[in-house]
Specification:
By secondary structure, this protein is an alpha/beta fold. The chain folds into two domains: 13-99 and 227-388 and 434-467, TIM Barrel, CATH 3.20.20.70; 115-205, Roll (CBS-domain), CATH 3.10.580.10. The chain is built from 19 helices and 22 strands. An eight-stranded parallel beta barrel has the order 4-5-13-14-15-16-17-18, surrounded by seven helices. Strands 6-12-11-10 form a four-stranded mixed sheet. A three-stranded antiparallel sheet has the order 7-8-9. Bound molecules: inosinic acid. Inosinic acid is lined by residues 57, 59, 258, 285, 310-313, 315, 352-355, 373-376, 401-404, 422-423.
């Protein structure tokens, strides 16, 4: 006989709806702040916050350097994946920490390169402007898509067609974006190469980026104004990996594991706390109150909640372990409350795996999550590390689980003990730039909070009222009974119910 059998089925986020509260001018969307604690800290001054409640999952197809930079600029964080060599992961963290807004480290061309070869690189990378440098890295010119016609100039060299250095306005040793912007405005040009005193290329500043970069009010940064960075670690090579990540400047670590209720995870947290007490560690994943207690008592500063719900996850099918994410958050949030009453320590909860739509995000927050971790959502963006591909006239990006055969090609780490895969690989629809997508997502989250009459996530936790909905009311909430070119599934089902 099993020790415990629960007959109440576990619930998913999509089974809940929010009831409205009183909306006033004070809870209008423009008044709402989505700032949320990232991890618990004993030292009030060292408390880390996110300005938006979203983080990108530690996955090869989601969180690389570009995602790390762009998401931190926009107020969230991407957890750089640990299923790669230690040096490669540390390099990504280093690049994020040393990122200077708007200063791009560009791909360069050499003067002797054939235009046809350069054109191939242009198609591969999607960039249309390349600086040209000699073998000492000295800047000698710029070549843009307007400087050649591939049908006429394929056999020419880059030097034949480039605009040479003497005709280009440059900045020397400029590190301030506003200063670069002023030179660009005066020069009427769209790009400014930044050189050192010896004429070596340091970076490029594009006018189109400046507006974005001067306009990142939600950016998350450390006390030296460097972007915050986050990395995943595993329970195997942490004694080598953590020192390299700390050396590169990492601000927060998360243990990447589908099951965090393990003595391995406890040992990892203890080791990090003993050797790097100032670096907070997020533990997980857990789905029970016992798992939560175990991790916080081991020293975790935040806890990831969720097992088996990820869009690429087959853990439930393979091992029979898992729980609906809503039930997991409800149980763990109640235990977090108890822990807070006992100790005064507020431990942030991260809803992870299967958070798909904006309403899922909002329901997870209402139930007690402080922020959500997502893979699929971010994999679809321009800034994820994968290349776009076209399938049946649709632009797609590959997305694969860390427990899939593809991710394990690197090394059997996260799911090392198993002889079987716990994740799959597939495609997700490309949706464009993170910045544009986030704008819509965040405005929907704010609209929900506003309808519930609250203006912070903390207040949402206290006041949200939710209701479990029936399968029929979920259907009712979708478009039905209208003809939109073809009948929707809901319309067909309604017809059947009516007849
Ligand atoms: P998604 O947002 O639904 O795509 O889920 C992303 C989350 O799934 C990650 O943050 C991990 O917690 C989890 N995950 C990542 N890779 C795998 C896998 O291969 N198997 C099971 N879960 C995974």
């Amino acid at each position: 006989m099993a020790h415990r059998i629960i007959f109440e089925p576990s619930r998913t986020l999509m089974e809940f709806r929010l009831l409205p509260g009183l909306t006033t001018a004070k809870s209008a969307p423009s008044e709402i702040s989505l700032r949320t604690p990232l991890v618990y800290s004993e030292n009030e001054d060292k408390k880390l916050f996110l300005n938006i409640p979203l983080v990108a999952a530690a996955m090869q197809s989601v969180s690389g350097t570009r995602m790390g930079i762009e998401l931190a600029l926009l107020g969230g964080l991407a957890f750089i994946f640990c299923s790669q060599p230690i040096a490669a992961q540390a390099r990504m963290i280093f690049k994020i920490k040393n990122y200077k807004a708007g200063f791009v480290l560009p791909r360069t061309m050499s003067p002797g390169m054939k235009i046809s070869e350069m054109f191939r690189i242009r198609q591969e990378t999607g960039y249309s402007t390349f600086p040209v440098v000699d073998d000492q890295d000295v800047f000698v010119g710029l070549i843009t898509k307007w400087d050649y016609d591939i049908s006429l100039h394929g056999d020419y060299t880059v030097a034949d067609r480039m605009i040479s250095r003497s005709n280009i306005e440059v900045g020397v040793n400029i590190t301030n974006l506003k200063e670069a912007n002023n030179i660009l405005l005066e020069s009427h040009k769209s790009v400014l190469p930044i050189l050192d005193e010896q004429g070596r290329l340091q970076s490029l500043v594009f006018r189109k980026d400046i507006i974005d970069h001067l306009n990142n009010p939600l950016e998350v940064h450390d006390e030296k104004k460097r972007l915050l960075s986050a990395a995943a670690v595993n329970t195997h090579d942490y004694q080598q990996r953590v020192p390299a990540l700390v050396e590169a400047g990492v601000d927060v670590l998360a243990i990447d594991s589908s099951d965090g209720h393990t003595s391995y995870q406890q040992e990892t947290i203890h080791w990090i706390r003993d050797n790097y007490p100032s670096i907070p560690v997020i533990g997980g994943n857990i789905i029970t109150r016992e798992g939560f207690r175990f991790l916080v008592e081991s020293g975790a500063g935040a806890v990831k909640v969720g097992m088996g719900g990820g869009s690429i996850c087959i853990t439930q099918e393979q091992k029979g372990t898992g729980r609906g994410l809503a039930t997991s958050i409800i149980e763990v949030a109640a235990e977090r409350e108890n822990y807070f009453k006992e100790t005064g320590k507020y431990i942030p909860l991260v809803a992870d795996g299967g958070v798909t739509t904006t309403k899922d995000i909002t329901i997870a927050l209402a139930l007690g999550a402080d922020y959500v971790m997502m893979g699929r959502y971010f994999a679809r963006m321009e800034e994820s590390p994968t290349e776009k591909i076209v399938v049946n006239n649709r632009v797609m990006k590959p997305y694969w689980g860390e427990g899939s055969a593809r991710a394990r090609e690197w090394k059997k780490l996260r799911y090392h003990q198993s002889q079987f895969v716990e994740g799959v690989e597939g495609l997700v629809e490309y949706v464009g730039r993170l910045r544009d997508n986030l704008e819509e997502t965040l405005s929907k989250i704010k609209a929900s909070l506003s309808t519930c009459g609250v203006k912070t996530i903390g207040e949402f936790h206290e006041k949200a009222e939710l209701e479990l909905v029936s399968a029929l009311s979920i259907r009712e909430g979708k478009v039905h009974d209208i003809y939109q070119g073809t009948d929707s599934q809901e319309t067909k089902e309604y017809r059947e119910l009516d007849s």
